[in-house]
Design goal:
single chain, alpha/beta, Quinone Oxidoreductase, Chain A, domain 1, Rossmann fold, 2 domains, 7-stranded mixed beta sheet, globular
């Protein structure tokens, strides 16, 4: 017998209920994992509320976890029982004590990376890699704006961009979060509740604006994000924690100075086993080298997944939230 969080109806955090589920066995090309830690992400909220639709109802949410291989199916020669592993992607189903998933979505963990850290960083860290090195190749002297700079992805973006040589500006909601962002590589935290973000950005950049804005907030920030860009700047909209971003007229991009807009999805950048492994290798190398510190905001028992979602949606968290299976 297995246990997993099940969602029977779209709604609030109280829809996340622990239930007994059938035992799992790996089929051809699959791996059976005893999960120890599970990552909690805003995409899980989108599935819980119905913004993103699962293939069927009821369903188990979650897209990343870490643990130990219990068994492998026929044809799997890249993983072995007892091996420590982690994964990101695939269909939802990570909020469970045990999981069967396609082996080509799983990577082996280096000895230096604990399961707790892996669950806290796989999706967020690979997202940072995608944003900073694939969507826009940030380099020395670049000016970047990172919204929610003290959040799970934000803290990783600040550190990674800092090590790439960029000038990092980040929006935060409190003085405490400003200090956290600064400690993780953000040169200029901006308290968005107390000052105009676009005015502050232009003051910090001698009126030039930034080459790229990374916006995971959406409804509350997209208009200001456009106003912060330099000519030919890029707005990367990759989340909507405050709600769906407003519609943009194509002419706004021209009026702002021949601007670019993109809405990337991580899973389009790690769609093949080779792409997944390359992203994992880049992330693991940064962590092992000490370039990235993985900050865990809080850890919750699997049965308290609803409380973990409340913490995430409160905007009071800083860093990653994980579940303990």
């Amino acid at each position: 017998m297995n246990q997993a969080i099940r969602i029977e109806s779209f709604g609030g955090p109280d829809e996340l209920r622990l239930a007994d589920t059938a035992a799992v066995t790996p089929g051809p090309g699959e791996v059976h994992i005893r999960q120890t830690h599970i990552g909690v992400n805003y995409i899980d909220v989108y599935f819980r509320t119905g913004l993103y639709r699962p293939a069927q109802m009821p369903f188990t949410p979650g897209l990343e976890a870490a643990g130990e291989v219990l068994a492998v199916g026929d044809g799997v020669d890249t993983l072995t029982p007892g091996q420590r592993v982690a994964y990101v992607g695939g269909p939802p189903g990570a909020y469970a004590r045990e999981r069967v998933i396609s082996a080509d979505r799983v990577v082996a963990l280096p000895a230096a990376i604990t399961s707790e850290r892996a669950a806290a960083m796989m999706l967020k860290g690979m997202t940072a890699h995608m944003l900073l090195e694939r969507v826009h190749a940030v380099g020395p002297g670049d000016r970047v704006l990172i919204h929610a700079a003290a959040g799970g992805v934000g803290l990783l973006l600040c550190q990674w961009a800092h090590h790439l040589g960029a000038t990092v500006i980040g929006t935060v909601g409190s003085a405490e979060k400003a200090e956290q962002a600064r400690a993780h590589g953000c040169h200029h935290p901006v308290l968005y509740r107390d000052e105009s973000v676009s005015e502050r950005v232009h003051a910090l950049t001698d009126g030039k604006g930034v080459q790229v804005v990374y916006d995971s907030v959406g409804a509350d920030t997209l208009t200001a994000s456009l106003a912060c860009l330099a000519k030919r700047g890029l707005l990367v909209s990759f989340g909507q924690s405050s709600g769906a971003p407003p519609a943009i007229e194509v002419g706004q991009l021209a009026a702002g100075g021949s601007l670019f807009l993109t809405r990337p999805s991580l899973f389009d950048y790690i769609g093949t086993p080779a792409e997944l492994q390359a992203a994992a290798d880049a992330l693991f190398a940064r962590v092992v080298a000490g370039d990235l510190q993985i900050h865990i905001d809080s850890e919750w028992p699997l049965a308290e997944a609803g409380a973990a979602h409340q913490r995430l949606e409160s905007r009071q968290s800083s860093g990653s939230i994980i579940l303990r299976a």
